[in-house]
Description:
This protein is an alpha/beta fold and 136 residues long. Strands 3-2-1-4-5 form a 5-stranded parallel sheet, sandwiched between helices. The chain has one domain: Rossmann fold (3-Layer(aba) Sandwich), CATH 3.40.50.1380. The chain has 6 helices and 5 strands; from the N terminus they run E-H-H-E-H-E-H-E-H-E-H.
Amino acid sequence: MNRKTVALVAHDHKKAELLEWVKTHIDSMKLCDLCATGTTGGLIADNTGLTVQRYNSGPLGGDQQIGALIAEGRLDALIFFWDPLNPAPHDPDVKALLRLCSVWNVPVACSSATADLIITSPLFFSTDYVRIKPEY
Protein backbone atom coordinates (compact mmCIF):
# COMPACT_ATOMS: atom_id res chain seq x y z
CA MET A 1 0.00 0.00 0.00
CA ASN A 2 1.31 3.40 -1.00
CA ARG A 3 0.48 6.21 1.48
CA LYS A 4 -0.91 9.24 -0.35
CA THR A 5 -1.24 12.89 0.59
CA VAL A 6 -4.75 14.19 -0.06
CA ALA A 7 -6.00 17.75 0.31
CA LEU A 8 -9.61 18.31 1.37
CA VAL A 9 -11.22 21.64 0.56
CA ALA A 10 -14.86 22.74 0.53
CA HIS A 11 -16.72 25.97 0.12
CA ASP A 12 -19.18 26.89 2.87
CA HIS A 13 -22.27 25.39 1.22
CA LYS A 14 -20.36 22.16 0.48
CA LYS A 15 -18.66 21.48 3.84
CA ALA A 16 -21.39 19.14 5.11
CA GLU A 17 -21.27 17.18 1.86
CA LEU A 18 -17.49 16.79 2.07
CA LEU A 19 -17.72 15.71 5.71
CA GLU A 20 -20.24 13.00 4.79
CA TRP A 21 -18.00 11.91 1.91
CA VAL A 22 -15.02 11.58 4.27
CA LYS A 23 -17.12 9.56 6.74
CA THR A 24 -18.22 7.26 3.92
CA HIS A 25 -14.58 6.68 2.92
CA ILE A 26 -13.10 6.78 6.44
CA ASP A 27 -11.10 3.57 5.99
CA SER A 28 -9.38 4.97 2.90
CA MET A 29 -8.85 8.34 4.58
CA LYS A 30 -7.05 6.60 7.47
CA LEU A 31 -4.50 5.37 4.92
CA CYS A 32 -3.75 8.92 3.72
CA ASP A 33 -1.90 11.93 5.04
CA LEU A 34 -4.63 14.55 5.04
CA CYS A 35 -4.40 18.31 4.76
CA ALA A 36 -7.14 20.89 4.38
CA THR A 37 -7.93 24.55 4.45
CA GLY A 38 -8.68 25.89 7.93
CA THR A 39 -12.38 25.57 8.67
CA THR A 40 -12.80 22.46 6.55
CA GLY A 41 -9.85 20.77 8.27
CA GLY A 42 -11.24 21.54 11.70
CA LEU A 43 -14.67 20.24 10.78
CA ILE A 44 -13.24 16.97 9.48
CA ALA A 45 -10.84 16.46 12.41
CA ASP A 46 -13.50 17.28 15.01
CA ASN A 47 -16.12 14.98 13.50
CA THR A 48 -14.01 12.00 12.45
CA GLY A 49 -10.99 11.87 14.74
CA LEU A 50 -8.72 11.91 11.69
CA THR A 51 -5.46 13.81 11.84
CA VAL A 52 -5.59 16.73 9.42
CA GLN A 53 -2.80 19.21 8.71
CA ARG A 54 -4.68 22.51 8.68
CA TYR A 55 -3.68 25.45 6.55
CA ASN A 56 -5.21 28.92 6.48
CA SER A 57 -8.79 29.44 5.42
CA GLY A 58 -9.07 29.57 1.62
CA PRO A 59 -9.66 33.34 1.36
CA LEU A 60 -6.74 33.95 3.74
CA GLY A 61 -4.22 32.03 1.64
CA GLY A 62 -5.08 28.37 2.30
CA ASP A 63 -5.82 27.69 -1.37
CA GLN A 64 -2.39 29.07 -2.22
CA GLN A 65 -0.72 26.96 0.47
CA ILE A 66 -2.25 23.84 -1.02
CA GLY A 67 -1.24 25.10 -4.46
CA ALA A 68 2.35 25.23 -3.23
CA LEU A 69 2.12 21.55 -2.25
CA ILE A 70 1.03 20.76 -5.79
CA ALA A 71 3.84 22.80 -7.34
CA GLU A 72 6.37 21.12 -5.03
CA GLY A 73 5.15 17.65 -6.02
CA ARG A 74 3.93 16.84 -2.49
CA LEU A 75 0.21 16.33 -3.17
CA ASP A 76 -1.28 13.16 -4.67
CA ALA A 77 -4.92 14.27 -4.99
CA LEU A 78 -7.19 17.22 -4.34
CA ILE A 79 -10.77 16.69 -3.24
CA PHE A 80 -12.32 20.13 -3.64
CA PHE A 81 -16.08 20.43 -3.27
CA TRP A 82 -16.50 23.91 -4.66
CA ASP A 83 -19.81 25.65 -4.97
CA PRO A 84 -20.45 26.56 -8.62
CA LEU A 85 -23.63 28.48 -7.76
CA ASN A 86 -22.17 30.87 -5.20
CA PRO A 87 -19.17 32.88 -6.36
CA ALA A 88 -16.39 33.15 -3.80
CA PRO A 89 -14.45 36.36 -3.16
CA HIS A 90 -11.25 34.36 -3.67
CA ASP A 91 -12.40 32.88 -6.99
CA PRO A 92 -9.07 33.66 -8.72
CA ASP A 93 -7.30 31.54 -6.07
CA VAL A 94 -9.76 28.69 -6.67
CA LYS A 95 -9.14 28.80 -10.42
CA ALA A 96 -5.38 28.90 -9.85
CA LEU A 97 -5.60 25.82 -7.62
CA LEU A 98 -7.56 23.88 -10.23
CA ARG A 99 -5.17 25.03 -12.94
CA LEU A 100 -2.18 23.77 -10.95
CA CYS A 101 -3.77 20.32 -10.77
CA SER A 102 -3.89 20.27 -14.56
CA VAL A 103 -0.38 21.65 -14.94
CA TRP A 104 1.14 19.02 -12.62
CA ASN A 105 -1.21 16.13 -13.53
CA VAL A 106 -2.71 15.83 -10.05
CA PRO A 107 -6.10 14.11 -9.81
CA VAL A 108 -8.78 16.55 -8.68
CA ALA A 109 -12.40 15.88 -7.76
CA CYS A 110 -14.95 18.66 -7.60
CA SER A 111 -17.92 16.41 -6.83
CA SER A 112 -18.64 13.37 -4.72
CA ALA A 113 -19.03 11.19 -7.82
CA THR A 114 -15.53 12.01 -9.06
CA ALA A 115 -14.08 11.74 -5.55
CA ASP A 116 -15.66 8.27 -5.22
CA LEU A 117 -14.02 7.17 -8.46
CA ILE A 118 -10.59 8.48 -7.44
CA ILE A 119 -10.47 7.05 -3.92
CA THR A 120 -11.87 3.63 -4.92
CA SER A 121 -9.65 3.18 -7.95
CA PRO A 122 -7.28 0.23 -7.52
CA LEU A 123 -4.58 2.47 -9.01
CA PHE A 124 -4.85 5.11 -6.28
CA PHE A 125 -3.04 3.14 -3.58
CA SER A 126 -1.09 0.89 -5.94
CA THR A 127 2.69 0.93 -5.82
CA ASP A 128 2.69 -0.14 -9.48
CA TYR A 129 1.06 3.07 -10.68
CA VAL A 130 3.30 6.08 -11.04
CA ARG A 131 1.65 9.37 -11.95
CA ILE A 132 3.45 11.12 -14.79
CA LYS A 133 4.89 14.38 -13.51
CA PRO A 134 5.51 16.79 -16.38
CA GLU A 135 8.90 18.38 -16.82
CA TYR A 136 8.82 22.01 -17.82
